[in-house]
Amino acid sequence: MVDFHQNGNIATLHNLRTQSLDEMTYELETFAQSRKISLILPCLYSELETEAMPIIVCELSRVSYLHRIIIGLDRANEEQFRNAKKFFKDLDQNHVVIWNDSPRMKALEHRLKDVGLGPVEPGKGKNVWSSIGYLMACEDSAIMAIHDCDILTYTNELLARLVYPVANPNFPYQVAKGYYARVGQNKLNGRVTRLLVSPLLIALKRVIGDRDYIDYLRSFRYPLSGEFAMRTSILPDLRIPSDWGLEIGVLSEAWRNLAPKAVCQVEIADAYDHKHQELSAGVAEAGLNRMSVDICKAIFRKLAADGTVFTSNVFRTLKATYYRSALDLLDAYYADAQMNGLEIDRHGEERTIELFAENIMRAGQFFLSNPHETPFIPTWSRVHSADPAFMRDMHSAVAKDIDEYQ
């Protein structure tokens, strides 16, 4: 999307098609000489068997400015861990596969639980958190990037554009959030962003009034993207949510810890397609059904922490306002899709909006019933304070797993 619009809250860095990938890569190689860049890939073993991962590994093998690649591997047994190490052997960079389900890693997890700091539940948040801890233990990187492992349209230009804003020493940005148009298979995708987050933020502004945090979230063109980069100096105090609220949670942490001028969003791809979650309308703990509740709770928690008072009446009003806002936006999405020759299932989209409206109430009721819920994994600063040897021991456990399971 070639434009140069700025929203006034955070910087938007566009792809104006005026600099080649080779030129950007040369600059990143220069930056990396004094500011090492590492990449974290949180993945399930099942993702190694998809069409996307071979493409991603092939593209990453051509990247010259990366110092280290950390692959956080979930849901893998011993044989699958061995297979994963073979799968990534073609990466030219220094790389490591962290077997999160290994006996050594499980023992470390129990060690944290003994002092009340263990991760709440398995998932992407815990995977990212463990990988960040390993990266911090290495003590040699200035820049960290993360992206998903199911991107069917992946090219290494996505990574270059993602890390450039925080790698450039002349820029003030400490966090960069990737954005792109969610179009694939001749459809307008990105249902949770389009049909939940955007109309929910509009409704929140109408119901509870102006809030800087709401304006901040509304500034992001794709707040639920799994691609972001940051300077490692902010990692020790970063609180990682353990549920589906990871992406909103990271943006909220950037809001809490940094000035708006230190945060930007950057256009990283012309086309982006990946695995699509099922709606799972009849299963509360699966798919977009679960995701929508967790995202709502993440937003409600942050607003409450900033002083917003929520009641049952507020949530009922919010549900009605959201529903009307979502239907109004759907008219715009429908026209946009039609004009660009894309398919859109109007009936299916309205059913999704109805489910999300109910889930706003579910999330609100859960929020009111569990005021002391703390779904965040403890910061690495707190872990280090409670157990100063933990990161060193985790680094050692990963190395021993690599050596033992050849």
Automatic annotation (TrEMBL):
The terms under GO molecular function for this entry are: glycosyltransferase activity
Would I find Transferase among this entry's keywords?
yes
- Give the EC class as a word: transferase
Q: Which UniProt keywords apply?
A: Glycosyltransferase, Transferase
EC no. given is: 2.4.1.266
Its protein name is: Glucosyl-3-phosphoglycerate synthase
- The encoding gene is gpgS
